[in-house]
Amino acid sequence: MGYDAIIIGGGLAGLTAASLLAKRQLKVAVIENGYNPGGSCGVFKRGSVTFDNGAAMLYGFGPSGFNAHRFVFNCLEEPIDVIQHDYLYTVVFNGHRIPFWLDVNKFADELCKVFPSEAGLDDGSVLDRKKDRSL
Question: Whole-prediction pTM value?
């Protein structure tokens, strides 16, 4: 059985490369060491806690700027419906739940709740720029 390309690793880059080659009618094999494709983009559990690892958040589907993921789907001629959510994910720091919001002002407000002494600093941090910027 012959292949035009053998991709070592079924992570995001390997699966992307294999998809783009297969779209061009090449016969491709993907060799993956793990039991699931996706490489370091995944989750694992320790006790009752679930951890995201690797590329847990993927950006690049927006209407402007360099959109690597949109580029790949366009090359594959695959439609994709993207539903934008305001709430991205949450981290827990010293017992405080910190929601990560798409809106940088909302996110900065959450940080101010956990780090109130940082709210008024004039050092160029996200907390200072919250009134001037959005994602």
Answer: 0.55
